[in-house]
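User: Just a sanity check before I run the rest of the batch. Below are the structure tokens for the first item. I only need the designed sequence back.
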């Protein structure tokens, strides 16, 4: 039986109190919300904090509501509540679908959106018992000096495996953080870094307080500069995993497409994850699709472009060649969902 290491459990009722506790025990305290990722990792001795700072008792971190031109979601909103929220399902069905596909019902009831955003990276050589890892000589991410995936270099390539961040990135969402130095806001697309050891810009003494999603997402460039806003933004999400439930993704694809009144694409973006240490934005899509209707030929060109960019590594037990071959397949599926969301289309 795997047992938890000893720790002291703190239950603050205010954000400021939680931040003060994290600051009081630097390097020895971690925030915990649902605990669906952290607690198993502690049992494997991947983390051994002496203090856990519980966040679910902080009322400020809960709630899903439309405020002005944004949908705001508290960091401690459960994944179940995100998946079932009328506001989320109305405005961003792909986000509801992504939240609803995390793990199984029991874990979604406990797990939170903020926790999913801060999910630890995963790797075949990392997510094992301490006994297993010691026998192998540990790895670059934890206690070792060698990456068993690349066998060279000093960069960990453990995979980002969270479901909701790719969708949030396509929607231009922002994340609010609070730490000892105050609060700050980051676009979700800038929240992650290419380092599997710690793959986000969140400092250890900071907590995520809420996520803000614009009700009318804009392009990251081009049409955004001219102030153009599309009222017909469609989203799609597709997930590859071994089983239809429970499993972490081997690949996820999130897409967002803005259509002009005549049905032509004004901007399009796609994000894939499950391949590297951070979600990957697909490039070159606007050159293919902008100004064109979303025909099967355009979708096929976008899928082929995505497949050319993605090269999975051996950081999961499944064959990387097969996972790479699935990229264009799941891009087609995600784009197909985006088209059907509008009640029809060119596909």
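Assistant: Here's the designed sequence for the first item:
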């Amino acid at each position: 039986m795997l047992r938890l290491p000893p720790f002291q459990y703190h239950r603050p009722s205010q954000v400021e109190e939680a931040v003060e506790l994290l600051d009081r025990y630097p390097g020895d305290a971690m925030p915990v919300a649902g605990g669906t990722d952290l607690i198993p990792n502690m049992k494997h001795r991947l983390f051994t904090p002496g203090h856990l700072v519980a966040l679910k008792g902080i009322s400020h971190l809960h709630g899903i509501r439309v405020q002005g031109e944004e949908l705001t979601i508290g960091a401690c909103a459960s994944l179940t509540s995100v998946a079932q929220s009328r506001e989320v399902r109305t405005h961003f069905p792909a986000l509801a679908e992504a939240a609803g596909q995390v793990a199984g019902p029991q874990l979604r009831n406990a797990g939170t959106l903020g926790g999913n955003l801060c999910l630890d990276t995963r790797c075949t050589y990392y997510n094992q018992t301490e006994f297993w890892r010691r026998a192998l000589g540990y790895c670059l991410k934890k206690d070792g000096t060698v990456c068993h995936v690349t066998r060279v270099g000093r960069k960990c390539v453990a995979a980002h495996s969270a479901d909701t961040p790719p969708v949030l990135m396509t929607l231009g969402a922002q994340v609010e953080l609070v730490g000892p130095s105050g609060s700050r806001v980051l676009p979700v697309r800038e929240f992650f870094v290419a380092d599997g050891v710690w793959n986000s810009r969140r400092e250890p003494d900071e907590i995520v307080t809420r996520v803000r999603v614009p009700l009318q997402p804009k392009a990251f460039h081009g049409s955004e500069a001219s102030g153009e806003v599309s009222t017909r933004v469609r989203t799609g999400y597709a997930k590859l995993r071994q089983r239809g439930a429970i499993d972490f993704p081997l690949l996820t694809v999130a897409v967002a497409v803005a259509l002009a009144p005549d049905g032509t694409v004004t901007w399009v973006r796609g994000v894939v994850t499950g391949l590297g240490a951070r979600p990957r934005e697909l490039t070159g899509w606007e050159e293919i699709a902008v100004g064109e209707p979303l025909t099967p030929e355009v979708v096929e060109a976008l899928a082929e472009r995505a497949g050319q960019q993605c090269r999975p590594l051996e950081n999961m037990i499944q064959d990387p060649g097969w996972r790479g071959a699935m990229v264009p397949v799941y891009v087609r599926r995600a784009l197909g969902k985006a088209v059907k969301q509008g009640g029809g289309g060119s596909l």
